[in-house]
Amino acid sequence: MRKITLFVIVILIGFSFSSFSLYSKECTQVFAVPFSQIQEVSPSVIPVNKQLITTFFKKYSNLQPYQSKVTSLYVNRKFNSIWFNADCELIPLARLLYSKTNSLEEEAVEGCIDYKETIDGIFDSNTALHPLSYNETEIMLSVLYVYYIQMVYDDLDRIQLQKKGWFLQGKDLNYNEFLDALLENPKLLDRAEKYQFSQYYKLRSALNKYREIEKKGEWNTIEYDSTIQNYKPYDSCRTISQIRHRLYIMGDLEKDSQSQLYDHELMNAVLRYKKRYGYYANYFISPQQIKQLNLPVQHYIKKIALNMERCRWVDPELDKADEYLMVNIPAFKLNYFKNGQRVLESNVVVGQDLMQTVIFSACVKTIVFSPYWYAPQSIIDSEIKSGMSRDKNYLESRDMEWNNGDVRQRPGPQNSMGLVKFLFPNSNDIYLHDTPSKALFNLDYRAYSHGCINLQKSRELAHLILKDDPDWPADCIDWAMNRKEESYCELKNEIPIHLAYFTAWVDEYDVLHFYDDLYGRDAQLEIDLRK
User: Fold this and answer.
1) Does 433 qualify as catalytic in the annotation?
2) DSSP state of 383
3) Does some domain include residue 305?
4) 368 and 509 in one domain?
5) Are residue 288 and residue 328 in the same domain, yes or no?
6) How far apart are CA 34 and CA 37, in angstroms?
């Protein structure tokens, strides 16, 4: 493009100064010249001030929601240019930002910024309907930055999240700090684990994989005989070959032999598939599981996208703690991490639909061995009083007693709390505890509690937490768990615990897991995102 020299500008403006400085306050006419026509101007003629910002947002009124954050960017940088270098050329980050904004679908984001054609004109003058001046270009790119970070990195307002029942540890994204980091290293725009929960990027890779599956069009319906109770090893039929192909597509099989025989290779793939979907691990394939496999690939794409959105709501530091516990409610699983490694995985029972386990973060502070169970007033009213009216030995037969107006169950193996419970103070009165109802842990569906988390490996968790505490050797822990007297252990170091809700999750081995939408939160989130 033709370069306009300072001399030509002076002629066009019509001044006859014998000497003229680009730093002169009178050099205001330059700003009306379209960006696509100017290439050789000092950065000092791209001023930004509050008045210019105000004028810009009056002209582009649909962008006013971004005005506050854009103004903050310039206040932080003392109103210096962000997007132009000393030669008045756009810096590489500007074009990268534009490219990433044009590829929002890769981030599972739907939408388009207003005045998109005007922004396109910054990078392609042939598409510019209304060419921008230099200072308009500068501010417009800052708007684009705020828009992109808000759509891809930022979470929802805390109040909005709490209305959704989401009280997990959230993020506090600093747009100015992030911009400074990007100006130093533009590649962070694509992947910045300081500003985004690391699970997000794992799900993004999975999203790309499933979109490729969709493009190939190989997600065919598996045909099966509904009268057959289960398909089992060494069965041979066309359905088996179709299941084999589906598991190959999803990555549970390394190759597709197209065999109709349910052989050892397929057995291993079925076990892998069942673990990923939270099913009890066996070789039987039920009609219900085939129905699950027959859900359209778009169902899984949508599920991944919804959970990427949830990742935006999570503090990026959450999984970087030296030690923490995480319960994924739809997975019916608890995981205990120390020094970046998972040291325990346990099945759990969570709250039933009418008594849902709440999503929040807290800290485990106390372990109670051989705990009493204090019956909630609701259970006293709905169950215990009626039981006592029918049977005078109702309390004693259940090892219960009155205690200052409360009903409590004495410590012991049949206590509803089991042998140990883990307390993390919270307004929901939720905690982890052992249970005598061990059979529940063998079920695929495990939402039967009144909201607390029933833990299968409670003894193992107590031993691991206290492993390095000389006051609690292993034999003392077991002794305390099997007494008829309650005892407390106050932890020397509190352990963060997060009760989360993810229906798609990629583990530390890069294996993608899907879980049923236990409380209908996926469906509601999808509706909310459409608004």
Assistant:
1) yes
2) I
3) no
4) yes
5) no
6) 5
Yes or no: say if 317 and 311 are a contact pair by the CB < 8 Å rule.
Answer: no
Structure tokens at 479: 């002794």
Do 379 and 271 belong to one domain?
no
As a whole number of angstroms, the distance between CA 249 and CA 265 comes to 15
CB count within 10 Å of CB 95 equals 14
Of 433, 489, 498, 513, the catalytic one is: 433
∠515-202-502 over CA atoms, to 5°?
30
Residue in 514, 465, 520 with CA at minimum distance from that of residue 328: 514
* CB distance 282 to 520 below 8 Å: no
Any domain includes 200? no
Q: Are residues 239 and 374 in the same domain?
A: no
Residues 32 and 112 in one domain: yes
What's the order of all strands across the beta sheet hosting 373-374? 373-374, 406-409, 400-403
* pLDDT at position 130: 61
* pLDDT above 90 coverage of the chain, percent: 83
Cβ-contact 261, 234 below 8 angstroms: yes
Q: CA of 224: how far to CAs of 61, 245, 273, 343, in Å?
A: 57, 14, 18, 40
This model's pTM is above 0.85:
yes
Please give the tally of structural domains in the chain: 3
Looking at the fold, whether 359 and 227 belong to one and the same domain comes out as no
Choosing from 264, 295, 326, the residue where a domain stops is: 295
How is residue 503 written in tokens? 């229906």
Whether 489 is catalytic is no
Mean pLDDT over residues 441-446, rounded?
Answer: 96
Q: Note down the domain range covering 269.
A: 220-295
Which of these is catalytic: 452, 489, 498, 513? 452
**Mean pLDDT, rounded, for 486-493:** 98
**Do 362 and 425 contact (CB within 8 A), yes or no?**
yes
367 shares its domain with 415 = yes
Q: Are residues 281 and 327 in the same domain?
A: no
What's the rounded mean pLDDT across residues 272-277? Answer: 97
Tokens of 286: 């039920």
> Which of 137, 152, 167 marks a domain boundary?
152
Evaluate whether residue 308 is within a structural domain: no
Confidence of residue 404 (pLDDT cuts 50, 70, 90): confident
Tell whether the model's pLDDT for residue 405 goes beyond 90.
no
Q: Is residue 389 part of a domain?
A: yes
pLDDT digits (tens, 9 = 90+) for 103-136: 999 999 999 999 999 999 999 867 655 678 889 9
